[in-house]
Design brief:
Number of strands: 8
Order of helices and strands: HEEEEEEEEHH
Strand order of the largest sheet: 2-1-3
Distance between the termini: 111 Å
Radius of gyration: 57 Å
Largest sheet: 3 strands, antiparallel
Mean pLDDT: 75
Number of helices: 3
Oligomer: single chain
Shape: rod-shaped
Strand content: 15-25%
Low-confidence stretches: 7-24
Helix content: 10-25%
Structural class: alpha+beta
């Protein structure tokens, strides 16, 4: 039987353990020394007669398959709750909810003129007083005098507020048209303000 050099035999054993480790359980190696002192190694074959033999059994550990632990599924972060939109325009722009119009008052002056105002107690007016001159004749050097009086105002019922604000807008437009304000710019500003109040309240629906 042919023998292999020691280095070649050891390499063969290592390759055998790497390629066929799953099937082999153990490998028997015989160390043979002849009369001249030459040493050879044989795999699973006893030494020939006339040689000194040393037998060794090498255990081949069966490979252990790595244990794979399933990683826990990664949960996506919760999505933030979408803000509640009360109303939206056709273009998708959120519109603030409309509110009731402000309070409005129907007032009467000392000379029985009526108007709509936004103050329950408007500033006092100076109502002229009749004066007499010397000898009791009116207008003969009698001068002028007035008395401060308050307008009488009553709140408009909530159910009629929208009608009141629309009337208030018509009055402001009439003042602009007929020049009843001190300046045209002030009249225009008043029309814009009253129109905005009516438009942004429930009166504009």
């Amino acid at each position: 039987m042919a023998t292999l050099p020691m280095r070649t035999l050891v390499l063969a054993v290592l390759l055998l353990g790497l390629t066929d480790a799953t099937a082999a359980e153990s490998v028997v190696i015989f160390r043979c020394t002849d009369a001249g002192g030459a040493v050879t190694f044989q795999n699973d074959v006893p030494c020939p007669q006339g040689t000194a033999q040393v037998r060794r059994v090498m255990e081949a550990a069966a490979p252990v398959a790595p244990a794979f632990v399933a990683a826990p599924a990664i949960q996506p972060p919760p999505r933030p709750a979408a803000p509640a939109v009360i109303a939206a325009s056709p273009a998708g722009i959120a519109i603030a909810p409309r509110v009731s119009p402000p309070a409005l008052f129907e007032c009467r002056t000392w000379d029985d003129r009526r108007y709509l105002g936004e103050l329950a107690t408007p500033p006092e007016r100076c109502a002229p007083l009749q004066t007499t001159g010397i000898g009791g004749a009116a207008g003969m050097g009698a001068g002028a005098a007035c008395e401060f009086v308050s307008d009488r105002c009553e709140p408009i019922a909530e159910a009629a507020l929208c009608d009141g604000w629309h009337r208030r807008l018509r009055e402001a437009e009439a003042n602009l048209r007929f020049g009843r304000f001190e300046s045209r710019a002030a009249a225009q500003a008043e029309v814009a303000r009253v129109e905005q109040v009516a438009r942004e309240s429930t009166c504009g629906q």
